[in-house]
Design a protein that fits this description.
The longest helix is centred in the middle third of the chain and has 19 residues, at 234-252. The chain has a six-stranded mixed sheet with strand order 3-2-1-4-19-18, sandwiched between helices. A six-stranded parallel sheet has the order 6-14-7-8-10-9. It is an alpha/beta fold and 441 residues long. 32% of the residues lie in helices and 21% in strands. Bound molecules: NADP nicotinamide-adenine-dinucleotide phosphate. Residues 107, 119, 147-153, 155, 192-194, 198, 200, 202, 205, 270-271, 312-315, 353-356 line the site of NADP nicotinamide-adenine-dinucleotide phosphate.
Length: 441
């Protein structure tokens, strides 16, 4: 009997693992199980709308989904519709590829005020993730502070200041486009607790900030070191030098007076308190210096008035029931991907939310090798048992063909020139299939 695998999650790590398993064990069957009716996880809901080219990988994932060995089961939630232990009883191997969908708390007094939002929620909101459609971030403010200086922070800053014309060719959701266009936001502050050399954003993303139609990048030249010193690989040093050159360029270029908005790159400042009553009115920072790579407080403080604080300080994974979880790191406890006999982890739930999309390809190939090395022949009923269980529990799983019907409707609904108009609610996706009531079952 061929081996039967279940992969939980349908983002990059899931699809790269499935593709590698198809290669490594051609007579296997692979079921990709996803909570939402839509596949592709972070590609659909994490990549910035104006980075459409990054989403081209969906074409390769679609080819994998259409392989004879692979089946997609969307709208099926582990824990609610089927337990992990039940899946482990049915499949020869189960792979956790659920990513890191949660926000990390800012962890300073006042971080529970209305108007403090994590980047996973904010990015989910503008990308039409059904969990965040009703987020309603406070954009009735002139100032927004983004804590963190990674690529997610830069994505958010860019989306906040781009004009409707700049976003017209993309799939920014209607609710987010309307709120951003109506917003009086003028100043977006991207604040890092360490310096320009330690900032995590990459150079292509940084350079984009110099080409915005209605926003000037603002950099204080006195915060820029002459060169990227310290211990790092040659490759990293080249990247850091490029970042310094771009930041220097921003600092030296006189602001274009015709541009109404500003994105401030502010370094050496750690958040210490979110200010205001029930709602955010500002945020206090302590000036830092970098010692041995760490941010150390100097005892000097300053405040930035704002009505919205977005903590773009990295994502974390949610604990998966029935698995050992490392709460401190926010990952499933694993030995290079092996969690327990027949249970594996790949991608961000295995190793922490870092790296580019392609990093998950390496992960997926590694996981497939481990599975094939660990298992000889299939011993469990796999898909047949899973489908029986879904029928018994009256769970209406969404097939890949169903998803393609939803996708076609999104393409047909798109604004002229835009790739798609996402349905930001599950009910609307299911309505496309003529089954709005299935959501309740
Ligand atoms: P990230 O790259 O890890 O950046 C997190 C930022 O938050 C860092 O500046 C970090 O500073 C800061 N931070 C963390 N904890 C903090 C705290 N308690 N107080 C203040 N600052 C804090 O995470 P990310 O931006 O969420 O990105 C996740 C991954 O997705 C990355 O690998 C990223 O490159 C990737 N990504 C790529 C793209 C793209 O290629 N265009 C787009 C989006 C995301 P320290 O360095 O001091 O810890």
């Amino acid at each position: 009997m061929g081996l039967g695998f279940a992969i939980i999650g349908s983002g990059p790590a899931a699809f790269y693992t499935a593709a590698a398993l198809v290669e490594a064990a051609p007579d296997c069957s692979i079921d990709i199980i996803e909570r939402l009716p839509t596949p592709f996880g972070l590609i659909r809901y994490g990549v910035a709308p104006d980075h459409e080219h990054t989403k081209n990988v969906m074409k390769a994932y679609t080819r994998t989904a259409l392989s004879p060995q692979v089946r997609f089961f969307g709208n099926v939630e582990i824990g609610a519709n089927v337990s992990l232990d039940e899946l482990r009883g049915m499949y020869d191997a189960v792979v956790l590829a659920v990513g890191a969908a949660r926000d990390r708390p800012l962890g300073v007094p006042g971080d529970d005020k209305s108007g403090v939002i994590g980047s996973a929620s904010f990015v989910g909101w503008y990308n039409g993730h059904p969990d965040f459609t009703d987020l309603a971030p406070n954009l009735a403010t002139k100032g927004v502070v983004i804590v963190g200086q990674g690529n997610v922070a830069i994505d958010i800053a860019r989306v906040l200041v781009k004009t409707p014309a700049e976003m017209a060719r993309f799939d920014l959701c209607d609710h987010a486009a309307a709120a951003i266009d109506a917003s009086p936001v003028e100043d977006v502050y991207m604040v890092g607790r360490r310096g320009p050399v330690e900032a995590k954003f990459t150079n292509v993303e940084l350079r984009e900030m110099g080409h915005l139609e209605n926003a000037n990048p603002v950099v204080d030249a006195s915060q820029l070191p002459a060169s990227a010193d310290g211990e790092m690989s040659d490759r990293d040093r080249r990247m850091k030098e490029k970042n310094l050159a771009s930041l220097r360029g921003f600092a030296e270029t006189p602001p274009d007076a015709a541009k109404r908005k500003r994105v401030h790159f502010s370094f050496y400042a750690a958040p210490v308190e979110v200010l205001g009553g029930a709602k955010v009115e500002g945020i206090r920072f302590e000036r830092t210096r970098v010692e041995g790579g760490n941010a150390v407080g100097t005892g000097a403080f300053f405040e930035i008035p704002c009505g919205l604080v977005i903590a773009a300080i990295g994502y974390r994974s949610a604990p998966v029931k029935d698995t050992p979880f490392d709460v401190r790191q926010g990952i499933v406890k694993n030995d290079d991907g092996r969690v327990a006999p027949g249970l594996y982890a790949v991608g961000w739930i295995k190793r922490w939310p870092t790296g580019v999309i392609g990093t998950n390809k390496v992960d997926g190939e590694h996981c497939a090798k481990q599975i094939v090395a660990d298992l000889a022949a299939g011993a469990k009923p796999g898909r047949t048992a899973f489908e029986t269980l879904l029928r018994q529990r009256r769970v209406r799983a969404i097939s890949f063909k169903d998803w393609q019907a939803i996708e076609q409707a999104e393409i047909a609904n798109a604004r002229p020139g835009a790739p798609r108009r996402k349905f930001p609610r599950v009910a609307d996706m299911l309505a496309v299939l003529g089954e709005a009531r299935a959501e309740a079952s």
